[in-house]
Amino acid sequence: MKKLEDYVVSIPDFPEPGIIFRDVTSVLQDADGLNLAIHLLMEKLEGLDFDVIAGAESRGFIFGMPLAYNLHKPFIPVRKKGKLPRETVSASYELEYGTAEIEIHKDAILPGQKVVLIDDLIATGGTSKAMIQLVESLGGIVVKNLFLMELAGLNGRAKLEGYNVDSVIVYDGK
Fold first, then answer.
1. How many independent structural domains does the chain possess?
2. Cβ contacts of residue 130 below 8 Å, gap of 6+?
3. Of 39, 57, 110, 161, which is least packed with CB atoms within 10 Å of its CB?
4. Could you tell me if residue 27 is inside a domain?
5. DSSP codes joined into one string, 59-113
């Protein structure tokens, strides 16, 4: 039986020399890899009390939706600024060369709701920290930050100190 890591294609020196790019699309394009990814993410949620799953655009949608469907939970999309049609709240975060902004519908999370945040990858933790700020600004409680892959060498967990952080695959480097 293959491990999930076997489905991830690693591309050396992309986007620049010395970086190993972990390509999640190779997991998606293999039915067995995708099935295994969803199964392993679901295992990470076993026994956890929560109300809602929220996922970051766009790969958080890919992994969050099947989890929400299988667990019969609502799914809340966290989108890039300007993509949601109703009243929103937003949060900014740092990128390598600048900033970005994400937003969520103002009525998406109710006060006291327990929320699982999902994305494909944690690197520096910026997107995840911004999602936490959005949920908490609406009165929600983040009970878990769940990722398919983690680049531990970029120390993203440090930005999420005090929160429950879990990853299916952890790569030591960047």
1. 1
2. 91, 92, 93, 102
3. 161
4. no
5. HHHHHHHHHHHHHT--EEEEEETT--SS-EEEEEEEETTEEEEEEEETTSS-TT-
List active site positions: 59, 96
Distance CA 37, CA 82 (A): 30
Q: The CATH number of the domain where 75 resides is what?
A: 3.40.50.2020
pTM of the model: 0.95
C-alpha to C-alpha distances, 138 to 13, 106, 109, 115, 169, nearest whole angstrom: 41, 7, 6, 11, 31
Distances in whole angstroms, Cα of residue 161 to Cα of each of 5, 158, 167: 26, 5, 15
Helix 31-43, helix 59-71: angle, nearest 10 = 60
> So what's the pLDDT on residue 1?
81
41 belongs to a structural domain: no
Residue 121 near residue 146, CB atoms below 8 Å: no
Locate tokens 């009243």: which residue? 87
8 Å CB contact between 131 and 108: no
CA distance 120 to 146: 8
Q: Rounded distance, CA 10 to CA 45, Å?
A: 27
List per-block mean pLDDT (blocks of 10 residues) for the chain, which spans 174 residues: 95 89 96 98 98 96 98 98 97 84 98 98 95 98 98 94 98 86
- pLDDT at residue 18, rounded to an integer: 85
Tokens of 53: 């799953």
